[in-house]
Design goal:
39% helix, eight-stranded parallel beta barrel, alpha/beta, single chain
Length: 522
């Protein structure tokens, strides 16, 4: 079975999408999820472009990855600069990434109009950049920017650029449809010509401006490419990049190539939803393979048929990609996911137990209220344990009050929270201030509990996100709060939903604390 390398650029190209901004912690969490999915390469960013990417590379080198390798992205050295003195080369090597991808011009139009240099000088820049990096790192990938447009205009020059990178020792020549306007037949024909003149493995990096990025990626592999670049959910600049959530199953299930293991492929839907949740984007219900509606059936004839033979109206088995068949109105899906999660959490569940269906029903009801657990698995584990009678209450809320006071224009508001909790037979009544109302209630709660549970001092709040769920209701809309917490061992996500943002935040904070205490007791 042919092996295809999957190269994920969600953290760089995906982060260039409108409305997307990843923090360093976001990028680290996504890195871990991509590693679980089994992608071969994770492009972490451009270490010379901003402080955030510099910090990411420092931190990610301490993360233990099982399947993926971290890649630093940059460009060829600048014209009129010596390669060994160029700052771009320096920051790439300073990132300590063992693999580096550099992008270089292969369209003569760009060389003449953007770089304002001679074509031969551009070829020298590519060669010198690759050979310099190759001396210092394990692998160098060359991204041939605007390759398909360049090949159509001046095939001789575009090919010379590839050969320059090949001669310098590049490990993969990635043909980029940077403007996203190339059609599949052109991709196929051009790659078949390129294979005749270069011997280095070819890759494809397709943008989606003509809605062909996935098709172009698939046909590139059929034509001989062995390396595919893309992003989760197709995130990216303008219309996005090739969507790996479609590329991977098309290559593996339809073409019979090997991208990830079958078990890893079953994580695809979870990873898709996780990235959207971290990016604070709504899940696209009709997204192929991983969307809620991808295997949903409503028409009577369809429902009757798929309940007998699913393949009558389903192009693959949804379980292959971690999805499930849904019969709208009377939804019968969900048990397999519950059983799988129970196994992950170390909870034994009899598949025929009515408790399984009770959890499914509870989950569906909560999702209908606005809860989402893709990036809040700690809350979901607590939900399961509550349903099974395995949950232990560590404290009870008697009440809390939050005050936000702004004393004069130009000064930051002051937030103060007062909380009363019952721990065993004792009642704790404390107050604390914070940078905002949520931080204040978090501080007050910890102040009340620290003396009973000193292990809570290890817990830190890493991230806090709010999403408005009910459009059109203005400031009275229901909101979902996602909190990421962690200690020295791991990080976990919790969720809360309410029309009151403080209440939603409180729910998520309580789950975070209870998860930590349960974790300590295991």
């Amino acid at each position: 079975m042919q092996q295809i390398e999957i190269y994920d650029t969600t953290l760089r190209d995906g982060a260039q999408a409108e409305d997307v901004s990843f923090s360093v912690e976001d990028k680290l969490r996504i890195t871990e999820k991509l590693d679980e999915l089994g992608v071969h390469y994770i492009e972490g960013g451009y270490p010379g472009s901003n402080p955030k990417d510099i910090e990411y590379f420092k931190k990610v080198m301490k993360v233990r990855l099982k399947n993926s390798k971290i890649v630093a992205f940059g460009s060829t050295h600048r014209p009129k600069h010596k390669v060994d003195e160029d700052t771009t080369m320096k920051v790439l090597l300073d990132s300590k990434a063992g693999i580096i991808t550099i992008v270089g011009k292969t369209w003569d139009f760009h060389v003449k109009e953007a770089l304002k240099i001679a074509l031969d000088e551009n070829i020298d820049i590519i060669h010198n950049s690759v050979i310099h990096l190759k001396k210092n790192v394990e692998k160098v990938f060359f991204d041939a920017e605007h390759f398909f447009d360049g090949y159509k205009d001046n095939p001789q020059f575009a090919v010379k650029c590839l050969i320059a990178a090949e001669d310098a020792g590049a490990d993969c020549l990635v043909l980029c449809d940077t403007n996203g306007g190339t059609l599949p037949d052109d991709v196929k024909n051009i790659i078949r010509e390129i294979i005749k003149v270069v011997h280095t493995p070819l890759g494809i990096h397709a943008h989606n401006d003509s809605e062909c990025a996935v098709a172009n990626s698939v046909i590139a592999v059929e034509s001989g490419a062995l390396h595919v670049q893309g992003t989760i959910n197709g995130l990216g600049e303008r219309c996005g990049n090739a969507n790996l959530c479609s590329v991977i199953p098309n290559l593996q299930v339809k073409l019979g190539t090997r991208c990830v293991s079958d078990e890893q492929l079953r994580r695809l839907r979870d990873v898709s939803r996780f990235v959207n949740e971290i990016a604070n984007l709504r899940h696209f219900k009709r997204q192929p393979f991983v969307g809620d509606s991808a295997f949903a059936h409503k028409a009577g004839i369809h429902v009757s048929a798929v309940r007998k033979r699913p393949e009558t109206y389903e192009h693959i088995r949804p379980e292959f990609v971690g999805n499930s068949q849904r019969i709208l109105i009377s939804d019968l899906a969900g048990k397999s996911n519950i059983l799988r999660k129970a196994e992950e959490f170390g909870i034994h569940l009899d598949p025929d137990s009515p408790q399984v269906q009770d959890i499914v029903t509870t989950l569906k009801n909560l999702e209908n209220e606005g809860f989402q657990f893709e990036a809040a698995e700690a809350s979901f584990e607590l939900l399961m344990k509550k349903s099974l009678g395995l949950h232990k209450r560590f404290f009870d809320l008697i009440g809390f009050r939050v005050i936000v006071e702004k004393r004069k224009e130009g000064e930051e508001p002051i937030s103060e929270a007062t909380i009363m909790l019952k721990v065993g037979d004792r009642i704790e009544h404390t107050a604390a201030t914070g940078n905002g109302p949520v931080n204040a209630i978090d501080n007050a709660m910890r102040k009340a509990l620290d003396k009973f549970y000193p292990e809570l001092k290890d817990v830190k709040l890493h991230d806090y996100k709010v999403r408005v769920l009910t459009a059109g209701k203005g400031t009275s809309a229901k909101v979902r709060v996602l909190v990421e917490s962690g200690d020295d061992d791991k990080k976990w996500g919790t969720v809360g939903v309410s029309e009151n943002i403080i209440e939603a935040s409180y729910q998520a904070l309580v789950d975070s604390i209870e998860y930590k205490l349960l974790k300590v007791e295991r």
